Amino acid sequence: MEVITDFLTDSAKIVFGSAVIGFFIPGIVGPISLTTFAGGAVATTALLTLATLLSTKFKSIKP
Fold first, then answer.
1. Domain span at residue 43?
2. Which member of 1, 9, 19, 58 has the greatest number of CB atoms within 10 A?
């Protein structure tokens, strides 16, 4: 289960770095739209929430 929570946490970092940070620092292609920013923020929050829930749920089960 630790591998899955690590994967979700890393995925949240990648989404945050590409969508949320990219909104404030435009790349070569051009600025990122507000829709992409909002979707990235929602996806980051969802991934981190899921990773936290899985992490705390399975830590309490381990002896």
1. 2-61
2. 19
Q: Which pTM does this prediction carry?
A: 0.78
Query: How many of the other CB atoms lie within 10 Å of CB of 51?
Result: 19
DSSP state letters, 2-63: HHHHHHHHHHHHHHIIIIIHHHHS--SS-PPPHHHHHHHHHHHHHHHHHHHHHHHHHHHH--
The answer to whether 44 touches 23, Cβ cutoff 8 Å, is no
Distance CA(25)–CA(30), nearest Å, equals: 10
**What are the pLDDT digits (tens) for 6-56?**
999 999 999 998 888 888 887 777 777 889 889 999 999 999 999 999 988
**Separation CA 38–CA 43 (nearest Å):** 9
